[in-house]
Amino acid sequence: MNGSAPVAEAPGAVRLATPTGRRVLVTTVLGSGMALLDSTVVNVALPRIGADLDADLAVLQWTVNAYMLTLAGLILLGGALGDRYGRRRIFLVGVVWFAVASFLCGLAPNAGVLVTARALQGVGGALLTPGSLALIQATFHPDDRARAVGAWSGLGGVAAAVGPFLGGWLVDGPGWRWVFWLNVPLAVLCVPVALRSVPESRDPRAHGRFDVTGAVLAALCLGAVTYALIEAPDAGASPAVVTAAVAGVLLGVAFWFWERRRPDPMLPLSIFSSRQFTAVNVVTLCVYAAFGGFFFLAVLQLQISVGYSALAAGTALLPTTMLMLLLSSRAGDLGTRIGPRIPLTVGPLLCAAGLLLMARVAEGASYWRDVLPALVVMGAGMVVLVAPLTATVLASVDVGRAGLASGINNAAARAAGLVAVAALPLLAGLDPHDYRSPDRFTDAFRSAMVICALLLVVGGLIAWGTVRSDALEPEAPGGPERCHAGCRTHCAVSAPPLDPGEEPAAAPPSGRGGP
């Protein structure tokens, strides 16, 4: 480099094995990993946060869900901003925003301030999360995209899985506030690498006004439903709970009508004309609802009922980390070779078996006999599932619409986790004031694990019945990509303009369009 800053290669031409390719991958993993790490590292700190702030279970749920709410509600808008103003630019704004909000979380003197700062964190996450995968898809050579997505998924999964261990070490050491302050040095590492090595990219077809109304309606809908679910165990069918539930449904209907009638919507409903895309997103809802419930409740169960320290509870989850680290990047290649149908069926079923094994964990449980086998089976299922799921979502639509597809899938995953964290204590019969009781929490935990396992089984069965084995194969000549540049009939259904935040499909070199 001869002392000068490295010059980023042109978008779409960077090879994964080059120094620039490795720096792009590091940048995207740091950014998305920061958000994923935070979403799990906070869980292990919840008992200590509740004790320090004298908070009941509802406050702990809001500590998780305030972040998920703004993230899920605004992630499509964040992707659209990246398409219009530059994906690297919006990604970097998100990284800095997220770091500042994390710093405020660590300073929070009470539960109200903490929940508000968590909501601000979600705004930053909505800017950086779609941008991370968008940069991979827009930057790498088509032949390297599937492998890059697999590496990104695997390393991102590691960041999520290592969170409980790291969070436990911080909580038992310098204190729970450091689980938020941890994001600041990660941002400091990410920003200069992105500025030096990642080429800017945008969608030249992005135009029109941003669908702010649609984003607000989506966030308010999720917020009202979440409020009703969290408050129902304590308040029952009170006027406030019923009003919130009804308002959530009405806001959801209003969002659907708004997106249907708006000429340039945040969520073009025509994308769901792809049966493959719709099916994979239904699988995503089932799978990530179960994951959200598991990661929220498992570390609480290990601390409240089994008696682990925060560090021990986090360390207990390390097997999933190691499996994701060692095997996830290869799962993308496996899905390409054998097709995604089998991985998307076997993965959820393995995870379901792991959760049923986890339901045995209670006071006096042995780590080697009870906890470890459950986590190994759960981790194996995640390895089989995560990378092929991401690749199939991107490949289920034309290259030009893969950004929108990934944004919708991201929002579906976050919304599923949000609703699961809000609903599972209600469905499992856990009162907000009783979560510190080991016996009552264990009973609720067992019921919740069975519910989550059933969701995973449903997801696996849907995948078996709907996902095509050839979903990751390149489109045959004359397919949607060939006509995309000038066609507004076929492409209006299977490949309209790219929207929020990611870009070409993971399948080489064009994604599959249409049902």
Overall helicity: over 70%
Spatial shape: globular
How many distinct helices? 18
- Computed over alpha carbons, the radius of gyration is 22 Å
N-to-C SSE string, H for helix and E for strand: HHHHHHHHHHHHHHHHHH
* Distance between the ends: 47 Å
What is the total tally of β strands? 0
Query: Which secondary-structure class do the elements indicate?
Result: mainly alpha
Pfam families: MFS_1
Membrane topology: Multi-pass membrane protein
Domain Major facilitator superfamily (MFS) profile: 24-471
Main location: membrane
Task: Please provide a written account of the structure.
- Residues 24-471 form the Major facilitator superfamily (MFS) profile domain.
- With 515 residues, the chain is mainly α.
- It has helices spanning 19-52, 57-85, 87-107, 111-139, 142-172, 178-181, 183-197, 212-235, 239-261, 275-304, 310-316, 318-338, 341-358, 367-395, 402-428, 438-466, 480-484, 491-494.
- Helix 5 (142-172) runs antiparallel to helix 11 (310-316), helix 10 (275-304) crosses helix 15 and helix 14 (367-395) runs antiparallel to helix 15 (402-428).
- The radius of gyration is 22 Å and the shape is globular.
- Mean pLDDT is 80; it is low at 1-7 and 476-515.
